[in-house]
Design a protein that fits this description.
Length: 209
Amino acid sequence: MNNVHLIDHPLVQHKLTLMRRKDASTNTFRRLLNELSALMAYEVTRDMPTHEVEIETPLETMKSKMIDGKKLVFVSILRAGNGILEGMLNVVPGARVGHVGLYRDPKTLVAVEYYFKMPHDMNDRDVIVVDPMLATGNSAVAAVDRLKELGPKSIKFVCLLTCPEGIAALQKAHPDVPIYTAAIDRQLNDHGYILPGLGDAGDRIFGTK
Ligand code: URA
């Protein structure tokens, strides 16, 4: 699939399998998501530009590479996105953070915005949008629509799981946004859940069910 990056590293796949199991506790689920998100951060930041800085080692001066973490913004789609955000910030602690609050209308499954807070100068920044589940694609499309109004330099989308319907919806609306995922599952059910999936990611991260 074009512009879809399947992160099939054995560590990622192993942790995802443990997370999918219905008997994984909230504690286990959250810890695994944290670890897995850090691993995904390696993949999604692989092409980040670096610049050379002069440093002193204990022996001599040298030029060495650094990324400019402050130009990067992680945008979490509330609330489940925060589960990925934490793990990614462990790897890129200098990144800025934005939040988009969207809830799914349970009848229409349409995304309704209730919160939107971004750092300044978004037109100078690379954005990585995070949400564990790319299901109907409605929230992802709505979030990217809003972000594009601010004209960021680039936008990538990172999820844990998706399905053909979610990929199609996001790519139809935003073919320029690459999707990074650890798995592409079989299908959506009538309630907008991914099958076989892992259930409601928000409830599993926060222990609310
Ligand atoms: N959101 C979830 O939390 N789980 C799904 O399967 C789909 C959307």
